[in-house]
Design a protein that fits this description.
6 strands; about 140 residues; six-stranded antiparallel β-sheet; alpha+beta; elongated
Length: about 140
């Protein structure tokens, strides 16, 4: 690898790390078994799990569909298979304090240079504020 490629490679990793650590959405990297390999600081702050609590756990086991929430109509399951993307699924994720928190999630496969799937990138948008707004609008109508 020549010097310019090394610099570009290092810069791309620094930029990616900066974006992931500063984003307001929760972010996780899962292995092929769905076990958490990495979570960003927002994941830890919003859900209350430290890396020592969640890394190595199967993330799907934390997914729920709150029955008392009008935004969640029955349980939605998001299954990721080879070359498949999951976008805009509404789910609940159990926080460390046992509360089920609403998220809109997307998942995308991660491939190595040989185009073999090696994991999944998971992003979740906290929907609590949106749900509160929708409830207020519903009460007005």
């Amino acid at each position: 690898m020549n010097e310019d490629k090394k610099k570009a490679y290092i810069l791309s990793h620094v930029v990616a790390e900066s974006i992931i650590s500063s984003m307001e959405d929760i972010f996780a990297v899962l292995d092929l078994e769905g076990k958490v390999q990495f979570v960003n600081e927002t994941f830890q702050r919003i859900l209350g799990y430290g890396e020592e609590d969640i890394v190595g756990q199967v993330l799907l086991e934390y997914f729920f569909s709150p029955e008392d929430d009008f935004m969640f109509e029955g349980r939605q399951s998001a299954v990721l298979t080879d070359n498949e993307f999951v976008k805009n699924y509404n789910i609940g994720i159990k926080a460390k304090n046992e509360k089920i928190m609403p998220f809109n999630i997307s998942m995308t496969p991660i491939f190595n240079k040989d185009k073999e799937m090696i994991g999944t990138a998971f992003i979740g948008r906290d929907m609590r504020q949106m749900i509160n707004i929708l409830r207020q609008l519903k009460e007005i109508n």
